[in-house]
Each structure stands twice: as structure tokens, then as C-alpha cells.
Specification:
Blueprint lengths: L3 H13 L5 E5 L13 H4 L8 H13 L4 E5 L9 H9 L4 E6 L7 H9 L4 E5 L5 H8 L4 H15 L6 E8 L7 H11 L2 E6 L25 H16 L8 H11 L18 E4 L5 E2 L17 H6 L7 H9 L7 H10 L1 H15 L12 H10 L13 H11 L1 H17 L19
Parallel strand pairs: 1-2, 1-7, 2-3, 3-4, 4-5, 5-6
Antiparallel strand pairs: 7-8
Helix pairs in contact: 3-4, 4-5, 5-7, 8-15, 9-10, 13-14, 16-17
Length: 442
């Protein structure tokens, strides 16, 4: 359940439409994966992350401006050895913490337990396919799927003592769109939820924050009818009680977005940053969201941030206004859901009921407690039209996945990817291009 601080923040948001109850905090720019639908390498990886002392000041300032939920993301947050201390810094200020991870080997049992003991009750793990080869190709690292599902097993054990919200973050793309019902079935069996995010693709001429340049993920016009069919299927499954986290309005808007349309969740084109949400870069820089950065931004840990935010000085900055008024719109999950929860009564009721059910522990009932990899194999057998995926994937996707399957051609794909990133100026900080996924030690 939410803290009193978060409930107050939500109530203020409903009344005033000016209460920053959701904050995305990119606590680290480093990541050991090379995900093809993520552009973290260009946005945050070359700036220094804040030490714990500055993070504690950031937590205090967020409480003072009336924040509620803080998403700790990255990069890979579990690469920070002090992650449990970071969680505690925010829970001590009565803020609710949401953890996000790719489920890498850095998410050890000890660190997960320490985060739970520090007050984390909400965690999201990236799961883009139940097919290991597809999963690893999307992440750009062999073995990453095995580590992710092992992490999910650990979390399912460690976060069961009290009610918790456990979810998959699934990027909806050409690689997995017909898999979504199977992923939902797996989530239901292990007591998790699924949160969908439509893939975001940008052009090299107009780069935006975390958006990928890889057009293989982008839907073709002749697939739009299949997207409409998927939308209807998802709404039906949601009505039947399958664990789909996203609101009905969000899902309809997401499918429209995948067709190249503007998001429909923004009434009259309104972006609610920085009034209802904003982002924090690893060095403490304020920014409107994950797609943009500011010149000479306010620092979250500085003493004058609270007065600047509360007085409206940050909101009225020309560079901030230029972004929120002129942006064509995104569909990163929590931004739309926050706006819809505040501005659409139906979505507010839907989300409120979900939170209440989570507080009673009803969201955490699992029929399978172990052997998750075996459970995935059994699920594939009840979806014979989906697995093997070669039945429905386009030939260009089958080609790259077949190359990835073979060790020698996979090495060439990795080299090509690294060379292309370098050519595009998407260079990581020194020593960050880790292209293996070691087995976890614990």
C-alpha cells in the first residue's frame, strides 16, 4: 500500500493538477546490456552518478515538494553497490520506491533482500519474450534471459512476506506482439503483472533521449490490422482478470501510437511535466522526462531546488515550456498512467481498485512457486500457434534471430552493432561495453 505521504500527493494532484507524485530517478547511467530498443548509451552513461549523501538530500527535497512515488531506474540500478541505502534514503522520507531492473546477475539475492528490508515493495523486471533467443537478441547479450528469469524467481520468494506489486516491463514491438497473451499467462501463474510500453523509434536526424534507432522493431502499415486485433484481445483478457497492469485508455492509445499517431492520452496535447511528474538524471540534474535534457538544469540535491520548484520558477522556464508545449508526445508507461489517473475519472477508479487489491495481497497469489523455466516450456505448449515463433515472425526478423542463434554469426552481429553505435556517436563511458552476461554467484 502507499504511504500517507504518497496518498497526500495523489489527493493534491487530483485537486490542483500540480503535485509531482511520480518521479523517475536514473540513479546510474551504466548498464551491462546492449538493448536494441533502448538508447541509454547516448543519454546518461557518460555522466557521474550522485553519491549517497547527495541522494539523501534529493530525497529530502522531493518530500518537501510533495512527491509520492520514486522510480529507481538506470542503466541497471543493481550495478550500484549502495542500492539498498538509496532505497532507504527515500523510504525514510515516507516516499514509495519502485525498483526497475533488467534482472541481470547484479541483482543478487543479498541485494534484493536488503532492498526489501529497506522498504522496497514494488519492482519491475524487463521481460520482452518467453523465447530465450529473442530475449537475448533484444538485450544484445547472450545469457541475459536466463539471468532475468532467475531474478524473477528470487524476487518471487523474497517479496512474498507482505503484499507487493511485482510486474514485467514488456516493450511491445514486431518481435513479440503475438507473444503477449503467453507472457500474460506466465505472469498470472507466478503471481506477477505485465506492464506494456509501445516501442519508441526516433530518427538519427531527430534523436530523443532513450528512443531506439532500430527500425526492425517498428510496425509496418500492413500489420496495423493485427495490432487492432491484439488490442481487442488484450482488452478481453484484461476484462477476464488476466494481470495486465495498463488502463484501458492507455492500451488504446498505445496501439494508436504504434501506428505512428499522436498519443490519445494527452487531452488537448497537455503534457503534465513538471507538475505531475519529471525525471532526475544520475548527477542530480532535473529534466522534464527521459527524452530531453536541459542546459544549466536545476540540481535536485541543492538547497534552493525546493523554493524554485514550489514557486513555479522551474515550470515557467522557457526551455521547459518549449519541451512540454511542443513535444509530439511519448508513451512511456507511467507518464500516461499518471496523467490519466488524475484527469480521467474512469482510469482513476480502475487504478485505485488495483492498488486496493494489491494492499490486500490479492495481486500476489501464484500457482507456481518454483521451476519458472520449466513453467515457460509448458506455457509454450499451450500456444502452438505462437511457438515456435518462425510461424508468424517476418522474414527479416527471422534472419537476424537465426544469425544470433549461432555463436560465430552472433559475434559478427555484436561487432556490427558496436561499430554502428560508435558511428552514430552513441559511445558509452570507458569500460562499459560489457557484452557477456555472467551467471549470478548467489
Amino acid at each position: 500500500m502507499f504511504s500517507l505521504q504518497t496518498y497526500k500527493s495523489i489527493v493534491r494532484a487530483l485537486i490542483t493538477k500540480k503535485s509531482p507524485y511520480y518521479i523517475q530517478f536514473y540513479i546510474i547511467g551504466k548498464c551491462n546490456l546492449m538493448c536494441r530498443q533502448c538508447n541509454i548509451v547516448e543519454t546518461n552513461s557518460r555522466i557521474e552518478a550522485m553519491p549517497i549523501e547527495q541522494i539523501r538530500e534529493t530525497a529530502k527535497n522531493l518530500r518537501k515538494i510533495g512527491a509520492g512515488i520514486v522510480l529507481l531506474t538506470g542503466g541497471e540500478p543493481f550495478m550500484r553497490h549502495d542500492l539498498p541505502e538509496i532505497v532507504e534514503a527515500f523510504t525514510r522520507e515516507k516516499l514509495n520506491v519502485r525498483l526497475q531492473t533488467a534482472g541481470t546477475h547484479f541483482a543478487t539475492e543479498d541485494k534484493l533482500r536488503a532492498c526489501y528490508e529497506a522498504g522496497a515493495r514494488d519492482i519491475n523486471v524487463s521481460v520482452d519474450s518467453l523465447d530465450h533467443n529473442t530475449f537475448d537478441y533484444i538485450n544484445g547479450v547472450p545469457g541475459s534471459s536466463q539471468n532475468a528469469f532467475k531474478t524473477i524467481e528470487l524476487i518471487s520468494t523474497l517479496f512474498r512476506k507482505k503484499s507487493a506489486i511485482l510486474s514485467f516491463g514488456t516493450v511491445l514491438s514486431r518481435f513479440n506482439y503475438l507473444e503477449i497473451p503467453a507472457i500474460l499467462e506466465f505472469a498470472k501463474r507466478i503471481g506477477w503483472h505485465v506492464s506494456l510500453v509501445p516501442v519508441h523509434i526516433a530518427g538519427l536526424d531527430k534523436p530523443k533521449g532513450f528512443r531506439s534507432y532500430d527500425t526492425l522493431f517498428k510496425f509496418r502499415q500492413d500489420q496495423f490490422d493485427k495490432l487492432d486485433t491484439l488490442k481487442d484481445e488484450l482488452l478481453r483478457m484484461k476484462a477476464q482478470g488476466l494481470p495486465l497492469f495498463d488502463s484501458e485508455w492507455f492500451l488504446k492509445s498505445a496501439i494508436s501510437f504504434l501506428k505512428g499517431n499522436s498519443p490519445t492520452w494527452r487531452k488537448n496535447g497537455v503534457c503534465d511535466s513538471p507538475n505531475l511528474y519529471f525525471a532526475v538524471r544520475p548527477n542530480g540534474d532535473f529534466t522534464t522526462c527521459c527524452d530531453y535534457t536541459l542546459k544549466n538544469p536545476p540540481k535536485l540535491f541543492e538547497s534552493d531546488f525546493v523554493s524554485s520548484y514550489n514557486s513555479g520558477a522551474i515550470e515557467s522556464r522557457k526551455d521547459v515550456q518549449d519541451i512540454v508545449k511542443n513535444c509530439s508526445g511519448c508513451h512511456y508507461g507511467s507518464y500516461p498512467e499518471v496523467t490519466l489517473s488524475v484527469r480521467d475519472p474512469g482510469t482513476f477508479v480502475e487504478r485505485s481498485l488495483m492498488v486496493l487489491r494489491s494492499g490486500s495481497g490479492k495481486l500476489s497469489q501464484a500457482s507456481v512457486q518454483e521451476n519458472f523455466l520449466e513453467e515457460i516450456d509448458s506455457i509454450k505448449k499451450i500456444f502452438p500457434k505462437i511457438y515456435p515463433k518462425e510461424q508468424w515472425l517476418d522474414q527479416d526478423l527471422i534472419s537476424v534471430l537465426n544469425q544470433w542463434r549461432e555463436s560465430e554469426s552472433r559475434k559478427e552481429l555484436i561487432k556490427k552493432d558496436l561499430a554502428q553505435r560508435k558511428e552514430q556517436g552513441r559511445v558509452r563511458g570507458q569500460g562499459e561495453d560489457i557484452i557477456i552476461s555472467p551467471e549470478r554467484k548467489s
